């Protein structure tokens, strides 16, 4: 398989393992985790708290090195932050002393490249932030800050967008709005998206596939495809098929959490 080959996944996680050195010994966060993400897919990653979701996403971004295995983008191993990969975190991480325009143009300054103003203006209009360029982060609601963070991440036209629980701190109404926005942006840009969430409903609404990680150390326990038509209306989300899928994913996560207890104990024993 080579880059550009139709068979090459956009992202391939190949037996990824990650050990953190902690004061009480080594902690195995990911254990030979493998997963493919195809181009233009939206894949959500769910799993019990502490199972390694963020570790996996950061490894995909190149911000974290792995202890074993590798992660490939278009067939090439990721060795560090990559211009083709954008990131959105739970915190919008806007610089408080810069207005919205200056925040969004910040990555261009760092890279010393000319901002793509027509594209940025389009994105700002797309997320409903046109006219807010002169506002400072403290003047924006949490939802608006996250919209700005999405614009900042998309402004460089990444082919992959990694989102780490981006809407976890928002109220449920704003969260639903943001989910619809992600879907709309995806329908327009076809950016490959990997999305971490604790909300199964959010994962189903957004994704082509939902990947459940086992309890720590994280491995792929099971993948669920989400076959519902897009855009996903409230009617679709209220069907029995969605209800059944939600329950199946929930059962898998609860099962993984139970299974993780002896594993975690074994890990403690190994590291003590
Ligand atoms: N920098 C670090 N140093 C040491 N241990 C870490 C570090 N980062 C994460 N861990 C540990 O690794 C494990 C996996 O953490 P991670 O944040 O990836 O899980 P998660 O599934 O994203 O958690 P949550 O659902 O609670 O956000 C946890 O036990 C966590 O305490």
Automatic annotation (TrEMBL):
Residues 11-240 form the ABC transporter domain. Pfam families: ABC_tran (PF00005). It comes from the Bacteria. Keywords: ATP-binding, Nucleotide-binding, Transport. The keyword Lipid biosynthesis does not apply. GO terms for molecular function: ATP binding; ATP hydrolysis activity. The keyword Transport applies. Belongs to the ABC transporter superfamily. This is ATP-binding cassette domain-containing protein. It comes from Nitratireductor arenosus.
